[in-house]
Design a protein that fits this description.
Blueprint (H helix, E strand, L loop, with lengths): L4 H15 L12 E6 L14 H16 L3 E3 L9 H10 L3 H19 L14 H16 L3 E11 L4 E2 L5 E2 L2 E2 L7 E10 L5 H6 L8 H11 L2 E10 L5 E6 L10 E4 L6 H4 L5 H12 L3 H4 L8 E9 L6 E7 L10 E4 L5 H10 L7 E2 L3 H8 L10 E2 L3 E2 L2 E2 L5 H15 L2 E6 L5 E2 L12 E4 L4 E3 L29 H4 E3 L6 E4 L7 H4 L2 H4 L12 H7 L4 E5 L5 H15 L12 E4 L2 E7 L5 E2 L4 E4 L2 E4 L7 E6 L10 H8 L1 H10 L7 E2 L3 H17 L4 E2 L7 H23 L3 H15 L5 E2 H11 L4 H10 L23 E8 L2 E9 L4 H10 L1 H4 L8 E5 L3 E5 L1
Parallel strand pairs: 1-2, 1-24, 10-12, 24-25, 26-31, 32-33, 34-37
Antiparallel strand pairs: 3-4, 3-7, 5-6, 7-19, 8-9, 8-11, 8-18, 10-13, 11-12, 14-15, 16-17, 20-21, 20-23, 22-23, 26-27, 26-30, 28-29, 34-35, 36-37
Length: 848
Amino acid sequence: MKYEHLGIEKKWQRIWKERKAFKASEDPTRPKYYVLDMFPYPSGSGLHVGHLIGYTATDILARYKWQQGFNVLHPMGWDSFGLPAEQYAVRTGTHPAITTHVNIKKFREQMESVGYAYDWDREISTCDPSYYKWTQWIFTKLYEKGLAYEADLYVNYCPALGTVLANEEIEGGRAKEGGHPVEKRPLRQWVLKITAYADRLLKDLDFVDWPESLKKLQRNWIGRSEGANIAFAVEGKGEKIEVFTTRPDTLFGVTYIVLAPEHPLIDKIVTSDKREMVSLYCKEAVAKSDVERAELAQEKTGVFTGAYVRHPVSGEKLPIWTADYVLTGYGTGAVMAVPAHDERDFAFAKKYQLTIRPVILPEEEAIAEKTMAQEQCWSGEGKCINSLFGTFSLNGLTSEEGKKRVIGWLEKAGVGKKTISYRLRDWLFSRQRYWGEPFPILHFEDGSKRALGLDELPLVPPEIVEFKPSPTGESPLAKVRDWVEIIDPKTGKKALRETNTMPQWAGSCWYYLRFLDPHNEKEAWGQQKERFWMPIDLYVGGAEHAVLHLLYARFWHKVLFDCGYVSTTEPFQRLCNQGLVISRSFQRENGMYLSGQEVVEREGKYFHWETGELLRSQIEKMSKSKLNGVSPDEIREEFGADSLRLYSMFMGPVDKEKVWNTEGVSGCKRFLNRFFEMATSEKLVGADAEMAEGTLQEALRLGHRLVEGVTADIENMLFNTAIAKMMEFVTAFIKLPHYPREVVKMAVSVLAPFAPHVAEEVWEYLGGQQSVTYAPWPKADQRYLIEDMATYVIQINGKVRGKFELPKDQSEERIVHLAKEHPHISKYLTGKVQKIIFIPNKLLNFVL
């Protein structure tokens, strides 16, 4: 039979849909498995092949678990509020709801065409009032617990977009959406008190199965530190700069002070000759996101303010600099620089030729020598040196002893105290947008507020035609006065509705819980269903969400746990970040990106097909903005969804970066062609068919080794090596003179999670009575997994008549039996056997 992928795929997608093949239910007789993708934002450009990495990985696991007898929940929905749809509305006048609905339809069709086994009956969208009713309800719980408050804050504000932006929405000082400049601006905002959960967010990382690198990112973002606050008096200004340090034992190694560019003291202390330069630097620095500024590998930049402080112990005069590697969000927004014992300070001091003074001596002689020679910094502990002023000395003490003595001296002198600090800041939760969840809050004339009750939710925004925010920074909602100004029906008082909306993060903080019970109109989720399905057994998504999304979702989950609404302290038990898929992008001199269809290649260089302009080209992250995203649609039409799925996994490990090459899909198609031809071949034989014992044994050995290898690889999410094992199996198996049906069915079963359409078709051809999705996963028989094999040569009167490849240490009786049963050997056994010569693992000779 010939493998016709288009017909096969349409057939099985129709059958799955009609039978609701992937519908989940709470069946207590089977173990549960909740596998979840980080749900996508449905952009107008649709899916590109980079998206398929995570979705295909979770689909493989879901199908594998079904075959193992698990009760699987594998849902999909849409993170559909947010800035892109609103910006499209600003440009075109199209209501965001219309754009979003069209985009969702496109995404769903693409996902269905790739054969993803989602329970579409549980589909949710964060912009649906029946969903954000409960987002608003959760906000009221945060408000009631004192975890939501208003404050005047400096925020990332984009004048062109007219809204506050999160750090993750900024790149290189510009908004990712549109590339517009971003500035810091003071605005009154809603803030969530995530810092109240900082310690629990740290400690509970010990109880989840996440990659250690990802846990480290979370820990670094929270940034719990024990140390001291120390006051440095500004020379001649009557001001003090407070710094937080985790290494008070290095106090005598301070050679300069650094202020964050946003620090309010800069304007007060900068000297007139430095003011213009400092002002320009600060303006550029504050445009960067905190993520960019905290990057260790980034080259250090800064400027001298012209001002000085006095060392609190020695009275030494120390220069004050401002540098973007210091953040206002950690400690006090100022640091005492100890370049001999801090990597950032060391790099900065080397660049600007500032004093480096070692005050901690490492134990290892070679490191100590380099540290004293100022060739490297030592950030570890050791013995205190060069730390003497008057009668106060740390010399000879260990670092730990030095810390205690310094803190005691500072507290006694009234210039410092022991402190615990966090890098984590409270969560800025307001956006000046239309396309987001309205806050369920009423403001009264006396300054008091009221959170709406559940019976008043959802609070739906008004229909508007002008989506652009005002120049003053107000949301488009502020213009709709008859929606904003109301008489509160519960109190009878005049009230104003909140005109800011929630950030896109809000809907994604809890969507995994709504999937448990998406049609419940009385509760956000049923308690029994939550206890059955939670926690999520595997959560897969992009590394760009490795910090904030996970941190925010964990925070909300812990609040819900404290309120008694969930039964687990952590939502995501196991986590996997998919690696980026990169491809070649093409850019004109004016910065405009071109698609690959507009490019011609000549001698390794790339030119515009029409103008001949030489283009800049580089391999970078697949992105719709850079026009280097590859749509799965044409590839699926040409090669098939199963080939596309296989290649997306065969490129490399799920969590590693991969380079897309469309030509590679054809190799996977060739493999499926061979598999299909093998499984439907005339060589296929049943269990009762006559065949050589050696053929059956070799087939079973290949089949059981395949099952053993693929099972282990799936459990470890090594899908690329699992596919390689399938390819190796087919190459070896097709050489056999016959194909035992039971072994072919084993191979179809293990292929099914990866290439489900072709597997279903072959399974049906082989007489499978139910969908291969629910056919039991085969178990490897250990008898066929013995690695040590031997070649048993069969002779008759000294002439070779056959060979057997079998596990070592077979008995003489076993080999004699096989030889007598083998049709090509037994025909030579025509006389009386006078003697049998047997050499273990080598030879059996019949002497007639």
